[in-house]
Structures are given as structure tokens and as C-alpha cells.
Amino acid sequence: QVQLVESGGGLVQPGGSLRLSCAASGTFFRINVMGWYRQAPGKQRELVAAISVGDSTSYGYSVKGRFTISRDNAKDTVYLQMNSLKPEDTAVYYCKAVVVTNSLDTLDYWGQGTQVTVSS
Fold first, then answer.
1. Contact in structure between 45 and 112 (CB atoms under 8 Å)
2. pLDDT digits (tens, 9 = 90+) for 50-72
3. Which residues are CB-contacts of 31 (< 8 A; sequence separation ≥ 6)?
4. Residue 34's pLDDT band (boundaries 50, 70, 90)?
């Protein structure tokens, strides 16, 4: 079993910055991909950014150039640095991990979500 604990959400003014963190704990062989998704009220959950164990990254179109994803493999932690925040970035942000178990199965795990609100 794997647990993902997110932190760093909150209220910020437009143009401001926030940094989200997500730490994985439990017993597993490896985390292949860690990423962030978000879901705004009335909208579908969408990819924000993802990073592989080899540090390959991908970003949602609306956040390219403003958000940066990184990971610390030694700490099984992923970070999302969010700059130049806009009101449309307001959403619940979820951490996701694609985990290879000790029996070499591949499973998806999700965090509980953290609220990010961008408003003046």
C-alpha cells in the first residue's frame, strides 16, 4: 500500500506563486511517474504536469512556462512550483503516482487533494 500526502495549497493573489509538495510512503519497488492533476468545479480532472523516474517532464498546455515540476527520488517526493498564477488555476490539485509494487505490478495511487485558490 502507498500513501500520498500533499501540502502547500492555499489562497494567493493573481500573479503570485505557490509550491505544492507530495510525499509518497509505503512499501514498493519503484515509482515510475509522479504527477499533478487538477479539477475545478464543474470541469473534468486534467493533467497539470508529470515527471518520470528519469526526469522526463510533460505539462498541460495552459501551464507551460509558468509551472515547473521536479522530484526528489531519494525522498519519493514530487514538487510543483507554480508562478504567475491566474484565477483560472483555481482548483483542487491531486498528486498521482504510478507505482511498481514489490510483485512488479503497476498501480496508480492518488492523494487526497489540496485546494489552490487564486483570487484578489
1. no
2. 999 999 999 999 999 999 999 99
3. 24, 53, 73, 76, 97, 98, 99, 100
4. very high
Strands 10-12 vs 114-118: parallel, antiparallel or unpaired:
parallel
Place of cell 492518488: 110
List, in order, residues 6 or more apart from 98 with CB less than 8 Å away.
31, 32, 33, 34, 106, 107, 108
Q: Which three cell numbers stand for residue 98?
A: 504510478
What gap in Å lies between CA 52 and CA 70, rounded to an integer?
A: 10
Contacts of 4 (CB under 8 A, 6+ apart): 22, 23, 24, 95, 96, 97, 109, 110, 111, 112
